Structures are given as structure tokens and as C-alpha cells.
Amino acid sequence: MPGPHSDLARLRAALTVFFALDGFIFAGWVVRIPAIKEQTGASPSTLGLALLGVSAGAVVTMILTGRLCRRFGNHQVTVACAVLLSFSVALPPLTHSALALGAVLLVFGAAYGGINVAFNSAAVELVAALRRPIMPSFHAAFSLGGMIGAGLGALVAGSLSPTRHLLGLTLTGLLVTALAAPTLLRRRPPGPPQAAEPPRPPEPTTGGRPTASTPPRPRPDRRTRALVAVFGLIALCTAYGEGALADWGALHLEQDLDASPGVAAIGYSCFALAMTLGRLSGTVLLERLGRTRTVVAGGATAAAGMLLGSLAPSLWAALFGFAVAGLGLANLFPVAVERAGALAGPSGVAVASTLGYGGMLLGPPVIGFMADWFSLPAALTSVAALAAIAALIGFATRRATAQ
């Protein structure tokens, strides 16, 4: 009994490391976007098109990653994508045109999309094996990694060139992968054996148990597939805000509120810190409020915070708004993925994750065009609008989820 428990604990630790590494590398890249924009001479709309390379690479890879995971295993794909992600983050500073930037971001996006599908699938299996609603803790690790990556970016923005900074991320990513990969590769079939022992009927209050059933299960009916799509839409609405703040938050603070590059980078760090704290308390919150109240309260809080963050006339009010938005968005994505998995197993998780990360990656280029048409602060209010829509969807589906 201690043996299997110890194996699961090590596996959880290794997966947590990869979630954190993903957030760390992604945040390290996004805080240098203003410098890369200046280096390439791109306008907001042209930069938005270049950032579409991340979206395109990620979405295409997400569609294929499910098959790769079934063929080679979630853990093997996680490790391979972590290596590719570490190498590809060093490429953007080597470009000097928006076209070249978009091309290298296709590679970065492919690695980012692949690792997110792979380690979310592995986490779902582990949640089922442990039979505890710990999904928010993995996403807390992603947010914590993002906070650390953004904080370090803020510290080095004035002293290190983007080339040296992102090369440092490459070396860090390869080192962390080398240390954490053996644990994953030695424990290929993580949770299925343990998840297959208990009876299959789902418990409404147990967040992760039904999400990792690899044994055959009935094909979801039309109503179930529609509900999975609805939860995917919640994930999309909330992840849109993450992507928008990651790619445009620092630029908004710099160009609209006259913040220095270092202080502007703190904006995403505030957002990531608040999101981390919210996700660390996610399990307790879900147990006390239930999923519907968590989604409705979180969406409303995020909408209010983002309105403040995008329209505030002072830097500190905007930073506070970013933090409130992060706190509100914290648990919406994990809840959406969890509910989709409870309804339709791993295929439900894949649908919700793909829609969610698609929203995260497609949001920034949309905001780029809106910034050209209106202004960047006006464009960022779309984050508040979508957070409010997520809250409304959560309320409208309260009977279907019985939470």
C-alpha cells in the first residue's frame, strides 16, 4: 500500500513541475513582447497577426495531440513537448520582421498546445486514481510558474536583452525537464489500474473521479455532447482573459499609463499571483460553494476587476484590477474541464481543454485588431464581457450540473 501511494505522490509532484514550467516559460515570453514588438517594428494589428502564429500552431497540435497521447502515452508526449517548448522560446528574439516572428511562433505554439493537452490528460488520470478534486492545484502550479516567470522578467527587463533572457529560459526548461522527466517516463500507466477498481457511477461532489476512465464507456448522447461544448465555452471565455492579459497587459501599462518596462511586467505578475492564490484555495471553495456559485461569483468578480484594470486612469488602480480579475478567473477553467470530464470522460476533457486554450491563444490577435480599430483599453474590456458571459452560462446550466 505505501508503494502505490508513494508512486502517485511522485507522479503528482512531477506533473506539478511540468505545469509550473509551462507557466514559467510562457510568462517569460509574454513579458518581452513589448521589446519584440519594438525590435520588429510591428503595429498592433501586425503584431496581432504574428501572435496568431502561436494560436495556429497550438490549435492544430491540440487536435493531433490526443492521438499522439493514445499512441505513445501522455507522459512521453509531455516530455517531448517540454523539450520543444524550451528550445522554441529562444527563437522570437532572433527575428526582425513580423513575418519571421509569426513563423517561429508557429513552432512555439505547437509545443505549447501539445504540452497542455498531454499533461492535462495525465492529470485527469491521476485525479481519477487519487479520487480527490485536486485539478485546481495543477493549474495553480501553472499560475505560480507564470508569476515567477513574469517576476523574473520584470527584474531583468532593464538589464538583459530579450535574446539572453529567453535563452536563459531555454536552459532552465531543459534542466527542469531532465530532472522531472524520469519520474514520468518510469510511470507510464499512472492512474488507470487504480481508477478501474472502484465502481464507475460518478459522485456529484467528487470533482475528478469520472474524468479518467480509459475502459470503454457508452458514447455520450447529444445532450451530453452539447453540455460538454457549453463547458468548453466557459473555458474559452475565461482563458481568453488569461491570453489577453499575458500578451497585452504589459503593453497597456507601458503605452497607456506610462509605466516603465519593469513595472509593466509586474502587471502580469499581479494577475498570476492572484490566480495562483485563488486556485490554491479552489478545492475548499468548490466544497463550500459548489460549482455553480464558484463559476457565477468568479465570472462576476473577473468582469469587475477587468473593467477597472482596462479603464483605470492610474497605474496602481490598473494593477489592482488585474489582481481582482486573476482572482475571479482562477477556478473557472479547472471547473469547466472537470465538469466536461465528468460528463464525457477524457474526450470531454479534450474538447473543453482545446476550446479553452484556443480562447487563450486566439484572444490576443483579436485584441490587436480591436486596439487598432478603437484603443487598447477599449479592446481589453472584451475580457470583462466574456467573463460576464461565462458567469451567465454557469447560472443557466445550474440545473443540468446539479451543483
Summary, kept brief:
This protein is mostly helical and 403 residues long. The chain has helices at 2-30, 33-40, 44-72, 74-88, 98-130, 135-156, 162-186, 192-195, 222-257, 261-280, 282-311, 315-329, 332-373, 376-396, 398-401.
Count of alpha and pi helical runs: 15
Largest sheet: none
- What is the element string, with H for helices and E for strands? HHHHHHHHHHHHHHH
Radius of gyration: 20 Å
Instruction: Report the β-strand fraction as a percent range.
Output: under 5%
- Shape descriptor reads globular
Helix content: over 70%
Structural class: mainly alpha
Mean pLDDT rating: 83
Distance between the termini: 34 Å
Low-confidence stretches: 189-217
Describe the protein's topology.
Elements: H1 2-30, H2 33-40, H3 44-72, H4 74-88, H5 98-130, H6 135-156, H7 162-186, H8 192-195, H9 222-257, H10 261-280, H11 282-311, H12 315-329, H13 332-373, H14 376-396, H15 398-401
